[in-house]
Specification:
Elements: H1 9-20, E1 24-33, E2 41-54, E3 59-72, E4 79-81, E5 88-89, E6 93-98, E7 105-110, E8 119-125, E9 128-134, H2 135-138, E10 153-155, E11 161-167, E12 217-223, E13 228-231, E14 239-246, E15 252-259, E16 275-281, E17 286-288, E18 295-301, E19 307-313, E20 324-329, E21 335-339, E22 368-375, E23 378-385, E24 391-393, E25 402-409, E26 412-419, E27 422-430, E28 443-445, E29 453-460, E30 476-483, E31 490-498, H3 512-519, E32 523-528, H4 537-541, H5 550-564, E33 572-584, H6 586-597, E34 605-608, H7 614-617, H8 624-629, H9 643-651, E35 665-670, H10 678-690, E36 695-700, H11 710-727
Parallel strand pairs: 31-32, 31-33, 33-34, 34-35, 35-36
Antiparallel strand pairs: 1-2, 2-3, 3-4, 3-5, 6-7, 7-8, 8-9, 10-11, 11-12, 12-13, 14-15, 15-16, 16-17, 18-19, 19-20, 20-21, 22-23, 23-24, 25-26, 26-27, 27-28, 29-30, 30-32
GO molecular function, one term: omega peptidase activity
Organism: Salvelinus namaycush
Subunit structure: Homotetramer.
Length: 731
Amino acid sequence: MEFLARMEPDAISTLYREYSGYPTPISAFVTANDYMALLNGTSFTLCTEWSQIERFRGARLHYAQQWTLIQNYSKETDIDIQPPSPCSLLHGELLSSYSLSGDLKAVVRETSGQVAGQQFLEVWSNSGLKKILHLTALNKHGRVYEDGQFGSLAWSTCEGRLLYVAEGKRSIGESYASASIPSAGEPTAGPSGGPSEKDKSLYWEDWGEGLTSKSVPVLCVADVAKGTVTVLQGVPSHVSPGQCLWAHDGECLFFVGWWHEPFRLGLRFCSNRRSALFCLDLEGNCECLSGDTSSVSSPRLSPDGRYLVYLEGQVFGPHSQCLSMKQYDLETRNISVLVDVVNRPKKDEFAGLYEALPPRCWASDSQRVVFSSARRNWRDLFVVDRATRRVTRISDSEKFGSWKLLTIQNDLMVVHCSHLNEAPRLAVAFLPLAGGEGDVSWDPLGESCLCGAIVNVLDISPTPQEENPEYSGLDFGALLVTSNHLLSRTKVPLVVFVHGGPHSQFFAEWNVTTAVLVKLGFAVLMVNYRGSTGFGQDSILSLAGNIGSQDVKDVQRAVLTALADQTAEKLLTLDPDKVVVMGGSHGGFLACHLIGQYPDFYKACAVRNPVINAATLLGTSDIVDWRYSCVGLQYSYDQLPTPEALTTMLQKSPIIYAPQIKAPVLLMLGGKDRRVSPHQGLELYRSLKSRGSPVRLLWFAEDAHSLARVDTQADCFLNVVLWFQQYLHLH
């Protein structure tokens, strides 16, 4: 076979380094240059920030790049794109934010080297550095929050104040019963300013995986002219604030508050945590604007300052779910539904809202909101009209499989686009007037980077025996990616790639792992089983109580469907004797189920931080509620495990199939994983070792659940390919 010559370790690493080095856009800001109005159009400056992996140093680089865009007066949808500026490296930036006019840029920067960990707030203008505040030296609070869950950096409309979130400063002589507690492992201060003797070993909660240094967030306001920082008072003691933004008058602000009593549960990737929308004025008066029995996120204020939209979901149950978009009218104080939950979407129609809103999502008319969301195997771009509640798709899935809105300003939309066979790039377009959204004309920025892959979309229905009687009639999807560079009639080994979550999905977007596997000559099948997002709320709910069976059967059905679709006109043939499986987290759970329930079908398996035994995971995960919900049991904070509950969890776990496993298993575990304890993988490792089954374990002591460190990702990929190569006998 042609591709085998390229499967030596050095060649694999080189190819992975090349494909993982494509940059990814992460933010954008648009400024209208009124003073640069031209005879034929209006000039806009597009400022973008990108992330790029540099493998030799094992670093993620962040850089900035600018474009000048000119809107044609004669035809306003036409955009003249000028050559971009050279890229400039950004050093130590944790957060950045442009003021409304675009004249000022605020940056929270952290030092490295000999004086590492010092944080500064900088304000830059067109003439250079305007102001700098040494936040660490001011000692008003702890570290600034830069995460996507709590973190904010927002300018007031007067451009004189900045709003952000930081860890609360420890109070002197803090009591044992205080609701405002320090971060995990951090002592309180005693009367002398040092750790209190009685508290030096006290345990402090945090917000779990990916948020281990976050415990007690506080809202902070920096006055640019005075150079002062004030920690705002009045936030209710039972909630932790985040996602804050100014009201239009600059005299009050809005924020999301998450309940942290009786104790904190993991928050990352969990849209089901009890929270509410609050309004706080600068005098410390606080009011809850939304209901307090739901989950709330992504508050966004309209340009005219009258309407606030936000996302709302259910508490507990599925950790990720179809959300509604609510609208709060600040004048009438009425709440209405703009976008409702979609239970059963029709094919090719809007399938619901599943992801956070971008920071700027309003059209300039304050009547429409633009957002991205999953639709079956794609991520599309939509606009909802506030007056009609009509949702219209404005992306073109024929061009790209994934459209992620970065910003819309002056009705100029900037979108991060990609496909399974095309690396990320930007596209821009003007949003037409209301009613004409179907006529959007997109202009890509930069050069296209194609990887030479063929993408086939599979729509799959379960057999009558595999139907869920409570949610009958649901289907699901898969993406089959193959190379277009192999000789005709080549028999190709198949990698079955299973996503985690389970309530997430594979978009038809750039995926480095898939792209390199296909380049090496594998076919990759990416399965969106029932329970994946993008297929409606019923699909998500159908999985509760059915993990380990419904999702396993769906993946196997998708594999059999792909293998059976071998018509004469197909250039490649999938080899049914060379099928392997891989996945992480719940994807690893499913992969281990598959090799246990179908022991003669899969020839090898590679899993990252898999759930192996749901019963033993119960006391070690940061999302203990999900351990009950996923097996169909109700959860409450005061819940104690029962023999019946533990038996149910065990019966749905892949560990019970360990004696049947024949496929060699590669385990990749993060030593600091808070979501799925690495002892889960060790449990399977020991079980397989005791039976003489081929198993290999890679232990990454400093990595957490996502195994996201640059060197770790490269190490994992190389080992996965070599593992498959060895046990598929591809030498």
